[in-house]
Design a protein that fits this description.
The chain has one domain: Histidine kinase-like ATPase, C-terminal domain (Heat Shock Protein 90), CATH 3.30.565.10. Helices cover about 20% and strands about 25% of the residues. The chain has a five-stranded antiparallel sheet with strand order 3-4-2-1-5, with helices on one face.
Length: about 140
């Protein structure tokens, strides 16, 4: 994320945090099997950074914000909701997975970079023992 945005981007810390939370949820709560992939897409405009995490989905539940203040975990989507201007879920149909996305405000105009440098996609291997992608740069 830092490499895509650059350390000088005003939203980089929030985007890294949101990516970490959404990737963690995708890995922990989807029905990913060995060799399933989790995709990450980042798109940037002058006003917003759009982050999407696509996973295999779950037959048991959809993404939701937990309402248990005393819980020691389960705050990922609450954090994403608080740091983003908008967020949501797109279900792609039975067996086709889902995308959880968020939009985070960019406070400053983009530096001089080509449009290709502001959009990227990464895939994570969900097989047992696979290394997770580095979301912090």
């Amino acid at each position: 994320m830092r490499r895509w945005l650059g350390d000088d981007h005003p939203a980089v810390d929030d985007v890294v945090l949101a990516a970490s939370e959404l990737m963690t949820n995708a890995i922990r709560h989807s029905d990913a099997r060995p060799y399933d992939l989790i995709g990450v897409t980042l798109s940037v405009t002058e006003e917003m950074v759009y982050l999407e995490v696509r996973d295999p989905g779950s037959a048991f539940s959809g993404p939701h914000i937990r309402q248990e203040p005393a819980a020691e975990d389960g705050r990922g989507l609450l954090i994403v909701r608080e740091i983003s201007q908008d967020w949501g879920v797109r279900e792609h149909g039975r067996g086709l997975g889902r995308t959880v996305w968020c939009a985070i405000r960019s406070a400053l105009p983009l530096p001089n970079r080509s449009p290709d440098e502001w959009t990227g996609t990464a895939l994570a291997d969900c097989s047992a023992g696979a290394d997770l992608p580095e979301v912090s740069g």
